[in-house]
Write a structure and sequence with these properties.
6 strands, 11% strand, 169 residues, mainly alpha, 7 helices, flat
Length: 169
């Protein structure tokens, strides 16, 4: 199984009296990473609430942050603006739950940060998948017609520049 980031589990175990050295011996690595099987074994003796924290339940995320995540990420990734660019008012940033970190803004709450991290990993995985498929399509276009503006394998016809329609007579 893969490693997971489990900051709340780390914290709860410390509250139970387990030292940082013992947590390292259990398998925790820098950044609260731990093997998911090990984390589940550690959590067996803890209650359901703790189990929710272990798996980083989105139920603990700031709902304003969660509801605005897609739009803010889109603004940042495509336009290099918006909340993650820290370009809105300071009060808005505070309400959203982000704080300045260099030239960007990052979540000020751990669960929001975990949600952002998970979302960014999903974006990267989907991007890699799309890039691989796109690369295959380009390679296929050398042998067969796969694009609408392709005359023959390896031959493309340029489109005419787009001219906006006018209602002038």
């Amino acid at each position: 199984m893969a490693d997971i980031r489990a900051p709340y589990t780390y914290s709860l175990l410390q509250e139970e009296g387990i030292s940082k050295d013992e947590l390292l011996d259990l398998g925790f690595k820098a950044g609260y990473w731990i093997n998911s099987e090990t984390a589940l074994k550690v959590a067996e003796g803890l209650d359901t609430y703790t189990n929710d924290l272990l798996i980083n339940s989105s139920g603990f995320v700031n709902q304003r942050f969660k509801s605005k995540l897609r739009g803010n990420l889109t603004s940042y990734l495509f336009e290099y603006s918006g909340a993650f660019r820290y370009s809105a008012s300071i009060n808005h940033m505070r309400v959203l739950g982000v704080e300045k970190a260099g030239d960007i803004a990052l979540p000020s709450r751990i669960m929001d940060a975990l949600l952002l991290e998970r979302t960014l990993h999903q974006i990267m995985a989907r991007s890699r998948h799309m890039l691989t498929a796109l690369d295959s399509k380009f390679a296929a276009s050398e042998q067969t017609v796969v694009f609408s503006d392709q005359k023959a394998p390896g031959q493309f016809k340029p489109r005419a520049p787009h001219k906006p329609k006018t209602n002038d007579i």
